[in-house]
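User: Can you predict the 3D structure for this chain?
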Amino acid sequence: MANKSSGELTHLSSSTVIEGDIRLDNDIRIAGFVTGTIDTKGALIVEQSGKIKGEIKASSATIAGRIHGNIECDGLMILESRSCFIGDIKTRQIVINENAEFQGNCAMPISEAS
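Assistant: Here is the predicted structure, written as C-alpha cells:
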C-alpha cells in the first residue's frame, strides 16, 4: 500500500477508547473504539473489533470493523467481508468485498483521460 507515511505504525488495541480527534503522519491500526476526527497522512486499518464514529481522512483505508461517519481517502479503500460502513465515501478506488455492508454515497473522481 503506497502512502505518504513515515513507515511508523500507531496501534490502538481493542481495550482502547478515545473520545477526541487524532491527527498523525503515519499509519494507524485501530482495534478499539474512537469517537472523533481521524486525520492521517498514512494508511488507516480498522480491525474487525474496531469501531469509529466520526470523520476520517487518510491516504488509504482497509476496513474490517464498523464506521459511522464520512471518509475521504486519497488512494484505495477496501471494505472487507463483514465490515459495516455508514456514511459517505470519497476515494480514487474502492473494493467492496462480499458480505460487506455499505449505506451511503460514494464519489470517485473521473480521470482526465475519460
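The two ends are 25 Å apart (CA to CA). Residues 9-98 form one domain.
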